Structure formats: structure tokens, C-alpha cells
Amino acid sequence: MLVIIILRGFIMKNKNRYLPGLLIVAIVWLGLTLSSWFLPLQDVSISERRKLEQLPALNFDSILSGKFALNFEKFSLDQFPFRDSFRRLKAISTFYVFLQKDNNDIYIADGYAAKLEYPLNEKSVISAADKFTALYNKYMKEANNNIYLSIVPDKGYFLADANKYPALDYEKMFEIMQSNLDFAEYIDITDKLDITDYYTTDTHWRQEEIIDVSKKIAEAMGVTDAILWDYSRKTANEPFYGVYYGQSALPLKSEQLHYLTNPILAACTVYNVETDEVTELYNIEKLAGYDPYEMYLSGAAPILYIENSNAKSNRELIVFRDSFGSSLVPLLAEGYQKTTVIDTRYIDSNLIGNYVTFNNQDVLFLYSTLILNNSSTLK
After folding, report:
1. Please, are residues 125 and 269 in contact by the beta-carbon 8 Å criterion?
2. pLDDT tens across 68-87, in order?
3. How far apart are the first and last CA of the chain?
4. Does the chain have fewer CB atoms within 10 Å around its N or its C terminus?
5. What is the pLDDT of residues 211-230, one digit of tens each?
6. In what order do the strands lie in the sheet with 146-152?
């Protein structure tokens, strides 16, 4: 109380000097308060690609448990007026004024935005290997399948250590996966990749740059001769802003999204088991959504069946994958009459047998280092 009295007396004595500043602060505070009351609530953040917190329920139980206070704090942060503008101001200040090396764990190196992924979570990697082994034991051990493993390095593989950022022990990760999945033939694709094969603002690789990757995998699986390797490149009309554009909050430049097609790929059909819908390999409507990368195979889905009526053989392929597989699978599907795509982030592994019969197919486990280091997402 004494401090308030002294401060009030100080302001009164110097009111002519401090009054304009106080008025500005009061106006800004009042404006933000009124904006938070009357501006409509936002459901999602397009830039961050996530749902925003909504006003929590107010009742006796939520107040007593403390949940209301906790959720209201999250709500107020997510629904703060002009939130994206303040995020951008903070990011610019972080990088260019205070010269910090990352913002929201996003860093910029060699012109590419990437996310800090460190340290190596060996328990997570072993857990991923155990889950794949469980799938093998349950569905493939007695099914005469040809099984392969390939790991997609994230952008940190090329950027982190070279630019003095904390880096995963990638070789250790590869070693753990190979030693624990001795039933699978390992296809090392790291020698076919460099940083230019990835989007500058996104996690993923560019489909037009991974033809050599798909060739190496196809060669290992013995289907090289069944694929033409002749494509026309199509360019999306909409500018592409990757996931790191929103997470970094920096004014990064947009990119172009390309996709590869030919008459055989154009004739393929994709059946989504969950939605009971049939689409093409490339869902052009998704280009206008908040994540244009979802145009490849229409994005994430528990199980997809790709039918290729023009295949040169009756061979079948089953791919266990994450989002990196969305853009690679179309390049392999040309070599198979049927390709089944499974994402165990969205379906319980025990239910897969209800939709897929394992019998003499090629089976590819294709996962990124990001998922292996955070394998709790795999069911």
C-alpha cells in the first residue's frame, strides 16, 4: 500500500510529463480488451495448422479442480487479438534484434527452416522397432512376405550439425532400427538425398526431387522394370507455405508445389477405407486447404487401397508409412497391381487384419526420423 501511495504521489507531481504515456497505455489496453470481448472466436490457426482453444465450460467442478483457470489461460493466449501479428513481431525481434538462433524451436540455416530435434530418444526408437516387430509377428511371419525397411532423414540430418545446432545421433538411430528389425532388408536412401530435395518452409521432401530415391527402393524390391520412370511435372497454382512458415512466424517466401504424373498414374484409383471414398492419386481440391501437401493421396488416412489396372504384373505392395510416404508411394504404385497404404498413427494395429490379408506381398516400412524419435504416435 505504501508503494502505491508513493507511486501515485510521484505520478501526480509529474503528471504533465507522464500523462501522454499513460493515456497511450490505457488506450491500447482498452482497445485490446474490447477486441477480445467482441471479435469472433477463431476455430483454427491456419498458419500454425492446429485447432485453437475455445472458451472452457464454467461450473463448480471445473473451478474447484482448477481446470477452468488452466484452460482459460490457454484460451486467452490462443484467442488474443491480432495474435499472428504479435507472433511475427516477436519472431522478428528474436531473430534479427536479439540475434537468437531459434524461435519456437525453429531455426533458419542455409535458407531452410527446420525444427530442433534433439536428443536421440533411444527408448522411442526401440519402441518403434518393437511395434514393427509386433506387426511382423502377428501378420507377416508366416505369410511369405518380402519385407523392407527405409528411413527418411529429417532436414536436421543435413543442417543441424553443419550449422552448429544440436543434432540427433542419426547413425545410432539407423543402427538400432536395423539390429532390431533383422527380418527386414534395409534400404539406405541417405546417399540419394541432400537438403535441396526438401521444401524450404516445410518438413517434407519434394516429390519431383525423389525419383532417384524411388528408383533405389524399387530396385531393391525388384520392380524397376515395371515402372516407366517417365513423368510430366504439374505445378500447383496456389503458393505453398509449409508448416514451418506458421510455426516460425517469420515472413518466409512462398514456394511452388509440383507433382509428377503420367497416363498410368492418372488412371490409378485410391479407395479410403475410413471415408468410403474413391479419389485419384492427387487430390487437387486439397491445394486450396490449409495444408496443400495433403493433395498427395488426400493426406493422412488409416488405410488406402491403390488400384493400378495398367500394371505389368499382378504383384502387390503394402506400405506402412507416415506423411513422407504420401508423395513417394505414387512413384512406386506404378509397379504394382495393388498398393495398400497403412498409417498406424490412425488405426490400432490389432485391427489391420480386418482390412488387409498378408500373403506373398512386398512390405515396406517407410518412416521418418521425426516419427521414430517420437513413436508414441504409433498405435
Report:
1. no
2. 677 766 766 655 565 666 66
3. 57
4. N
5. 999 999 999 999 999 999 99
6. 185-186, 146-152, 362-368, 316-321, 338-342, 303-307, 269-272, 277-279
